[in-house]
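anyone seen this seq b4? input:
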Amino acid sequence: MSPLAISLLVLLFVALLLVVAVQAEKTTALALRLSRSPLTYALSLAVYCTSWTYYGSVGRAATSGLSFLAIYIGPTITVCLWWILLRRMVQLKERYRITSIADFISARFGKSQAVAALVTAIAIVGNMPYIALQLKSIKDAFSLVIEPGAPAGTWLIDQFGPVIVVVMTLFAIVFGARRLDPTERHRGMIAVVALESLVKLLAFLACGIYVTFFLANGFSDLLGSQAADNYEIARVFSIGGEGAYVEWMTLLVLSMAAIICLPRQFHVAVVENPSERAILPAMWLFPLYMVLINIFVIPIAVYGIRSGIPVTQADTYVLRIPLQHGDTWIAVLVFIGGFSAATGMIMIAAMTMSTMVVNHLLLPLFSAVSFLAPMRRQLLRWRWAGITAVLSLGYWFETKLGDSYALVNMGLISFAAAAQFAPAVVGALCWPKGSRAGALAGLAGGFGLWLYTLLLPAFSRSGWLDPSFLDNGPWGIGLLRPEHLYGMTTLSPLSHSVFWSLLCNAGLFVLVSILWQRSQEEERLAQ
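predicted toks r here
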C-alpha cells in the first residue's frame, strides 16, 4: 500500500484507541464494569507480549528451535504462585500507597530513598534501549508494508518514528499523567492496553490461520515428518544446540522474574489491579493468552523457511509471507497488530518510568537543595517532562544503535536487568531478616556485574567500545574477561551474566542482611 494509506490507517487506529480511552474514563456503569473486569485485567497483563514477542518468537523459533517456549513457560510457573505472592503485593499496595516497583522495594526497607533511587536507575538503564527496540520494530514494519519506490516513502519512513513518539507522548500524558496522584488507577490507559492486547492476538491468529490453512494444507503439512529432510526446518523442532539445557534454565529464570519485576509488569499487575478477586481469573486467562499467541509460531517459522525467505529475515516472517503472496490486507492487519504490541509497552513503560524518576530522583533532589524547593509545586509538569524525556531518549537510542548487536539483543538484556529486582522483591515478601543495607548491596553488586558482563560487551560488539577488553580483559587480566569471568568459558554470554549477577546479588543481600544491624523501623515493616 502507499505510505499515505498506511499512515492514515495508523491514525484511524490511534483515533479508535483515543475514543476507547475517553469512554473508559467516564463514570458510567458500563465503563466502571469494564474497568473492573477480570478480562480487562488479564488482557492488560499481556503487555508482557511486546513486538519482541510478536515478531521475535517466530525469528527465535527459526534460528534457535523450541527455546522460545521458555519465555512463556517461566511466567506460567510464576502465575501458579500469584494467589500467594501477587495477592500479598496488592494488599501491600493498598496499605502503603505503592506506585511502582521502586516504591514497593523501598517501602519494605524503611522507605529508603537510596534503595528507591537505585531501583529507578537500574530500571532506566535496563528499559530505555528496550523502548528503542519497540520503536525500531514499528519503523521497520512500516518500511516493509509500504509500496516499494513510492515517492513519499523515504520521507514518511524518516518522519514516521518522530510522529509516533509525539503521539505516544501525548497519549501517555493525557491518560497516564493528568493528575498528580499516581496511586489512582488509569482506567483509560488500561482499557487501551487491553484492547491492543486483543488486537495483536487476533492479528497474529489471523496470520497463523492464513499461513497454515490457506497457504499450506494444515498442521500436518507443516509439522509432518517430511520436515526433518530440511536441516533448517528440523532446527525449528530442536530444543537448541550445545548448552541447550543451560539456555532453557536461563530463559526460565529470567521470564519467571520478568513477569513481576519488569516495571511495566509490576504496574499493570499490582498498581492497576482492580481487586484481589481479579487475580484468580487472571491465573488461567493470562496463560491461555500466551498459549494462543504462540500456537502458530512454529507453523509460520516452518512455512517461512520452506518458502525460501532467508532465516536472517525470520523476525519479519509474519509480514513477509503475506507480502510475498500479494495479500496486502493480511500484511496490514499484521502490521497493526505489531503496532499494538509495541505501543502498549511504550506507553506503560513511559508512564511508569516518569513516576519513578519524579518520585525517587527529582523529589529528593528538590527537597535536599533549598533553591530547588519551589520545583516541588511543579511535580505534575515534571511527570509530563519525564514521559517526554523517556520516549525521546528511546528514540535517540533507536537512531544511534540501529541494527546493532546491542539493540537486537535488548529484549533478553532488559530481562536480565529486571531480574536484579527479584532477590529484593522475594526477600521483601518472604524473609523478615532482610535489611536495607543488604538490599542496597545486592542491587548494586548485581547491577554492576550485569553492566560489566552483559551490557558493556553488547555495546562493544556494536562498535561503541574498544573490543580488546572482551578478548584480553581489562589491563590484560584474562580472569576478568567480561564474558568469561574467572575462567568460566562454557556458558553463553547471557547465561554467564545471569549466573554471576544473580549469585552476587542474592549472596550480598543475604550476607549483608545477616551481618548488618536493622533499625526498629525496618523490624516493624518486616513484620
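Residues 108 and 520 are 13 Å apart (CA to CA). The two ends are 61 Å apart (CA to CA). kinda curious what u guys think
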